[in-house]
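Entry:
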Amino acid sequence: MNRIIQLLILILLLNACKENPKATLTGTVKKFGTGEIYLIEASDEGKIDTIKVENDQFSTSIDVQSPTFYMLNFGQDQKPAFLILEKGETTVEYEMNNFNSLKVKGGKEQDSYDQFITANIPYFEKMDSLGVLANENSNNQELIEKLQSEFLKLDSTVKVNQIEYVKNNPHAVVSAFLASNYLSQENEKTFQNAENLYNLLDSKVQQTYYGKKIKELKEQLQNTSLGSIAPDFSLNDINGKTVKLSDFRGKITLIDFWASWCGPCRKENPNVVATYNKFHDKGFEILGVSLDDSKEKWADAIEKDKITWTQVSDLKGWDSEPARLYGIQYIPSNLLIDQNGKIIGKDLIGTKLEKALNEIYK
């Protein structure tokens, strides 16, 4: 009995001595006074912690198993702080309404992130100034097109810098974040793009949140690449009837992801309506997948936009099962599938859809 008790005590002592990984976050928010700020974790759950600020000062501790991305929100119309919390201390300084006052000091991952941001600040500032000019001259189409061209050049440079950083820093958690960010903004990304970036990362970095997101996207892109068979799914239509994608086998079909709240989607709908009316009699079908969370707003948009093709939704917004299955990260977004369910086109926006169908039905 004494031996068992001794073993139990030893186990308790060993557990007590185990390292409890905590990140300490302290800071000063000048001209804030007393109130609450919010720490939002970069995760699928988006966990939010409330931090009390007293006389401009705050302090808290967070359990961290590995370096984790967070956003510290100081309130409406304030510049948020992007943090990578890891074991040890991170400090934040900010003065309300003074965006240039934000300073973050943390561990090596925070330093890596800050180094990338600092190196690219000239590009970000130029992109911001172009955005301001565009808003001030929204009626000058010629100038808008010129500004867009300059913006895209700067954006392309930043993307190149992201890839270079990932290549040179495979062991940094920041690399997984930058790779994920790059892929999320790349409209014409492919399975090979995602595969190449994922393989650049160290195995430990692949296991982080953003590493897993890249792996998930990679698998989605593999399933939805040109030439692949479109994964089947089923959802209820506006009347509650279950509809399957496989119900459309035998016909050229467009899977159209959209939402009532999406301005670019609503702007695109007249093009889709016109194309549907032109080719429907030849056997063309559309299966609309709405990322709405309100049935009333969804139904109202269907009526106002004169949509007559089949519409389905699980009313889960961005958590829509087909959107996750297909790796949809922006809308409007669509896929064109042939009579056998094979994907033959992607993101056919504007006149691209009509041109593709003209080739098919010529």
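DSSP finds eleven helices and 15 strands in the chain.
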